[in-house]
Amino acid sequence: MTEPLILRQDDTGVTTLTLNAPASLNALSDAMLDALSASFAALAQDSSSRVIVLRGAGRAFCAGHDLKEMQAARTAADKGAARFTDLFARCAAVMQAIPALPQPVIAQVHGIATAAGCQLAASCDLVTAASDARFGVNGVNIGLFCSTPMVALTRKVPPAIAFEMLTTGEFLSADRAREVGLVNRVAPPDSLDAVTQALARTLAGKLTAAVRIGKRAFYDQLGLPLDQAYARTGQVMAENLLWRDTEEGIAAFLAKRKPDWA
Predict the structure, then answer these.
(1) Which of 14, 130, 147, 163 could bridge to 110 as Cys pair (CB 3.0-4.6 Å)?
(2) What angle do CA 105, 69, 119 make, to 5 degrees?
(3) How far is C-alpha 94 from the chain's CA centre?
(4) Which CATH number is 39's domain given?
C-alpha cells in the first residue's frame, strides 16, 4: 500500500505534518499540492490543534516544484501554458492558506529548501532550521526566475537580500538566513526536532484564542497604513480584553499565580 504524501501526528495540541515524498526531495507535485491543500483545510476547522509543525521526510525539507511533471506538460498543444498557469495558481492558494490558518505554523527545515520549497518555508509564520540547512530561490540557474517564490521571500527578508538570492541563484546558510530574518532558530541537526517541538509547545501553552486572534490581526495590519493599522489592532485588543480568560490572565498575573483558563 502506498503511504500518504502527508503524514499527520497530533500530540497535546501540536500537529506535525510531514511531507512524505523523500525520493523526490518532497517536491511540490500536483499530488503533494492537493495533499497540502486538504490538510490545511482540515486543520482550519480543527479546534484541538493549537500549533502546526511542517517538516519533510528524508534528506530535505522541500526541493520546490516537480520539474519532471512540468516538462511533461510541454507535450500539450499549447506547450503547457494552461497547465503552468493552473499550477502556479494552485500553489499560490496553498501558500496563502498558511497565514490564513488560525494556528501558528512552524516550518522545520533540514537539508534544502529551494525555489518553491523556500517559498513554502517563507510562507510559514516561524522557521526553525538545522545548522547545515540551506535556503535558495535558485530557478535562475536553469533559466526560470523564481517569480512566485519571490512573493513570500520578499515579505520575510530585506529586498536587496531577496534580489541577490533571486538573481545569483546562490544559497543562504541557516545562520545567514537567521541574520536576514528568514529563520527564527537554528539548531544542530540532531537537536532540530527537540528545538522545534519546544517552540511549538511554548506557543501551544498560551491562551489559544488570544494567539488565533493575534495571528489574524498580525497579517491584517501588515498591509495597512500606520493609522489604519493602529485602528484595526486597537479594536482587536479591546475585544481581547473583554474575554473571561483574559480577565483571569491579568488577575492571575497581578496575584502572582497561574491563570485558571477555561
Answers:
(1) 130
(2) 25
(3) 10
(4) 3.90.226.10
Q: Which residues contact 98 (CB under 8 A, 6 or more apart)?
A: 40, 105, 123, 124, 125
User: What is the number of domains present in the chain?
Assistant: 2
Indicate if 247 and 187 belong to the same structural domain. no
Indicate whether 48 and 136 sit together in one domain. yes
Q: What pLDDT, on the 0 to 100 scale, is given for residue 1? A: 60
Of the CA atoms within 13 Å of residue 143, those in its CB half-sphere come to 1
How many angstroms separate the CA atoms of 211 and 119, rounded?
A: 24
Q: Is the domain of 66 the same as that of 155? A: yes
Any domain includes 51? yes
Q: What count of other Cβ atoms lies within 10 Å of the Cβ of residue 11?
A: 12
The per-residue pLDDT for range 164-211, each reduced to its tens digit, is 999 999 999 999 999 999 999 999 999 999 999 999 999 999 999 999
Burial class (CB in 10 A: 0-12, 13-18, 19+), 154: middle
Both 200 and 216 in a single domain? no
Task: Give residue for cell 491584517.
Answer: 220
What's the CA gap between 188 and 131, in Å, rounded?
5
**Structural domain span for residue 217:** 208-254
For 220, residues 6+ apart whose C-beta sits below 8 A from its C-beta are: 232
